[in-house]
Amino acid sequence: MNAYLERFMRSLKSECLRKMIFFGEHSLARALKEYVAHYHSERNHQGLDNQLIDPDEVRCVAGKVECRERLGGLLKCYYRDAA
Length: 83
Description:
Elements: H1 2-15, H2 25-41, E1 65-70, E2 75-80
Antiparallel strand pairs: 1-2
Domain Integrase catalytic: 2-50
Protein name: Integrase catalytic domain-containing protein
Pfam families: rve_3
C-alpha cells in the first residue's frame, strides 16, 4: 500500500500543489478535493492498462471533442461529447 500512496502523493505534488499558491486551509482543501475527483474519475492510470479507476460515463467514439477543466484550467480532461 505504501507504493500506491507514494505514487499518489508524487502526482499530487507535481500536478497540483507545486503550481498553486494557497491562501488558507479552505483553498488547500478545495484544491485537494478537486484533484482527488480528477484523479479518480478523469485521469488515465498506467497500472490499470490506461483505464479510469471509476468511469462515471460511457466514452463514445464519435462526436466533438470537449475539454473539462478543473482548478482554473490546471487540470484538464478531454472527452467526446455524445453524438
